[in-house]
Design goal:
11% helix; disordered N terminus
Length: 189
């Protein structure tokens, strides 16, 4: 009986001072908008096109000790698109594409987070674009650098699922697959 108590006391002491990995949970609750980025690529006439969204608001409540309780949301100002030229930017805001007059923002709201191990997660949520809501699963990797967490993820959307580029643009001139990539930077709390 005397041997059990010292082992238990050592275990409690290690957990208290944070020596064991399970005691090193980290929380991220604020996104640094200026250091974060949302970009996209697609094919047009067999050429790769790259673009970004300059204005968005991201909210995060993520605890590495309890990722299942995490919550993330994102609102993107669609008129902040930069597809490489002012002509493309203007065209993409028109009715056939994003229709920013009627639908100025795209939103994402998480509903579940699944931990996959090795700082990899799947964030499941509802994406709304042009008034159409679809469930998406977003693979994300958390890269911790000193006191900063970088949530790096990407997914492929079908623009036809959201009626983006409907009508005369529904053909293969612009690929149906749009690759979205994001980097959300958040300081530890």
């Amino acid at each position: 009986m005397t041997f059990r108590f010292p082992r238990l006391a050592v275990l409690v002491a290690l957990l208290t001072v944070g020596v064991l990995p399970c005691a090193q949970a980290v929380q991220y609750t604020q996104v640094n908008q200026a250091a974060s980025k949302i970009s996209f690529t697609y094919n047009q006439f067999s050429s790769r096109v790259y673009g970004t969204f300059g204005k968005f608001e991201a909210k995060l409540d993520f605890d590495t000790a309890n990722p299942a309780a995490a919550h993330a949301s994102l609102t993107i100002q669609l008129d902040s698109i930069d597809a490489g030229s002012s002509e493309a930017n203007t065209e993409l805001q028109k009715t056939a594409w994003f229709d920013t007059a009627a639908y100025p923002v795209a939103t994402f709201e998480s509903t579940d987070v699944k931990a996959l191990g090795d700082n990899k997660y799947t964030i499941i949520g509802k994406l709304t674009l042009r008034g159409i809501t679809r469930e998406v699963a977003v693979p994300v990797q958390l890269k911790a650098k000193k006191t900063i967490g970088i949530f790096d993820g990407q997914l492929t959307l079908k623009r036809s699922d959201f009626k983006v580029g409907d009508g005369e643009y529904a053909d293969a001139v612009v690929s149906d697959d749009i690759n979205i990539r994001f980097k959300m930077v958040a300081p530890q709390r």
